[in-house]
Design goal:
Strands 1, 2, 3, 4, 5, 6, 7 and 8 form an eight-stranded mixed beta sheet that branches. By secondary structure, this protein is α/β, with parallel strands linked by helices. Helix 7 links the parallel strand 6 and strand 7. The protein has one domain: 3-Layer(aba) Sandwich (Rossmann fold), CATH 3.40.50.880. The model has no long low-confidence stretch (mean pLDDT 94).
Length: 210
């Protein structure tokens, strides 16, 4: 059964709600989590920051699987052995290009089909959808020459993180829904979307537009 959580951001306000739902999705007292950063991070700043976050939840962010210069295909086995995989924030277009280059899209689909939990934050959440162009609403710049904006397609809706923190209005979202002919979930940083099987559950500040 498909198990996903799409965060706008992992903020303290979600600790008793979305973070608790994440623990239920994984279903283990001390799960091991893998981390895929959206871009190179030689100092491992973002990995170490998230490791502390998960440690506070009783989880171990034990695997850092980079896609840029530090990419090591031998680490894939350890990544896929994790109970959950975290897809980080960043530039969604760049992240998708790197996942394609490393032939990771089908790998992640298979991981989810086999029971692994996928955690997305911002760009990582957008990647789970069928179309990543909602990232333009968040200010992501398109990679030069990129023309295919097809996401992993684990859900049939689109996702907009950080809603309310910029100039995007509900009217903008309605026009986007009209153009794309898909439901859009827009989350503030205090909101998240949980997907378990065919059930979609909103936590905190999320609006749905269809």
């Amino acid at each position: 059964m498909k198990k996903l959580i799409l965060y706008s951001d992992q903020v303290p306000a979600l600790k008793e709600t979305a973070d608790a739902e994440l623990k239920k999705l994984i279903g283990k007292p001390h799960p091991v989590i893998g981390f895929i950063p959206s871009a190179g991070d030689p100092a491992r700043k973002y990995y170490l920051d998230r490791r502390e976050f998960y440690r506070g939840q009783g989880m171990d962010l034990a695997v850092n699987f980079e896609l840029d210069d530090a990419w090591d295909p031998a680490g894939l086995k350890d990544l896929l052995a994790c109970d959950a995989i975290h897809l980080s924030g960043g530039n969604t277009f760049y992240f998708l290009s790197r996942l394609r280059q490393r032939k990771m899209l089908d790998v992640l689909v298979k991981y989810v089909k086999e029971g692994g939990v996928l955690i997305g934050v911002s760009a990582g959440s957008i990647l789970m959808t069928p179309d990543i162009t909602t990232s333009s609403i968040c200010g992501d710049e398109i990679i030069a020459g990129m023309t295919d904006f097809t996401g992993i397609g684990l859900v049939d809706f689109l996702f907009v993180p950080h809603f309310g923190s910029g100039s995007t209005t509900v009217g903008d979202l309605k026009r986007f829904v009209h153009d794309k002919k898909r439901v859009v979930y827009a989350a503030r940083d205090t909101g998240a979307v949980i997907v378990q099987g065919n059930t979609v559950k909103c936590i905190g500040d999320v609006i749905r537009i269809d």
